[in-house]
What we know:
The chain has one domain (2-90). It is mainly alpha-helical. The protein has helices spanning 2-16, 18-37, 42-60, 67-90. Helix 1 runs antiparallel to helix 2 (18-37). It starts with a helix and ends in a 7-residue tail after the last helix.
Amino acid sequence: MLLAAVVLGALALYYFGIRAGLWAAGATFGLCLIAMFAPGWATAIYAFVAAAAVALYWIGSRRQRPPDAVIAVRLIRGALKRAWLTARTLLGGKDEK
């Protein structure tokens, strides 16, 4: 449930910007909560979430990314790189020279 919200939020952030990413993540999380408490609707909700993911990719890949998305992706990549280097150092990884 949380993973679907993060993935759709990240996909929307990458293609449409920060605000759209937050809306997509929040809406997906809300729909997954409804699916958890109303099992009769779960299949329809999960199908809708899957269709939304495909639509985000299909539409987003054909348009130019907004500037706030480019900045956000750059910041996330830098944070992931720092986390990877820190984890590698703490776990005793070999230094490359």
